[in-house]
Amino acid sequence: MKFAYYPGCSLETSGKEYDLSTRAVSKHLGIELTEVPDWSCCGATAGHSTSHLLALALPARNLALAEETGLDVTAPCAACYQRLALACHELNQNPQLREKVNEITGRPFHGKSKVISILEVISSVGLEQIRAQVVKPLKGLKIAAYYGCLLVRPRAIQIDDPENPQIIEQIMQAAGADTVDWPHKTECCGASLAVSNEEVAIPMVSRILKAAALSGANCLVCACPLCHFNLDMRQLKVNRLRGTNYQLPVFYFTQLLGVAMGLNPQDLSLHTHFVDTGQVLKLVG
């Protein structure tokens, strides 16, 4: 199984854990990732609020580069996935617009490559095959799977049910973890609003953490660098401002899958989180 791999800006910086663990787990599962050559920013998350044409041209350039590899493209970042997938969908629906965008980018995109989320890529290996690779089941972990906004909206590109998606739960259960039912799995965490208007974002993060704690979860699992950043880094500030004491580690699903498969923890970057992951991981041994 081969895919063109679009890491995007976040996975080069604040979401490095996601990039490292995605590459390690994919290699272990026999998924070959070929990084898109000369990739550039896809415009997430602010490009589409500036100009519709810009919001199409930025991802279209990367889609054209991916298409040149002859492979379908996958993007771990939820925001990157959404921008690439939406652009692909809209340009395929409107050949005249695609021609205009191609003139702007100077890179012809023909609509031959599909955009697939990394969740779908790894799930496509098969749950039984994932179970067969597990050497350290995630016993003791009670996971609140958090999808956020971008993976399940809008309908044209959603990867699962918009209200009650299950793909993360299925993968984590195959790795031996327990998952909890909870009501905030697709609620917004504030995204980049946490940078420009923290007074709005902090209550949103607080509600998600509260719901996860009340569900009995001892950690959260996500597939979005910005969601991870908000829930992990801002947890201490939520505690300080709200008088709470949340200690909920936030993992990328690929990190815990790597743990279950016995991969080197250093390769999964489990030690670079704001909320300590050690106590919860001791439950796994």
From TrEMBL:
Q: Which Pfam families match?
A: CCG
Q: Which residues form the Cysteine-rich domain?
A: 4-83, 144-232
Keyword list (alphabetical) reads:
Oxidoreductase
Q: Which GO terms describe its molecular function?
A: oxidoreductase activity
Q: Does the keyword Oxidoreductase apply?
A: yes
The record ties this protein, via InterPro entries, to: Cys_rich_dom, HdrB/HdrD_reductase
Q: What is this protein called?
A: Heterodisulfide reductase subunit B
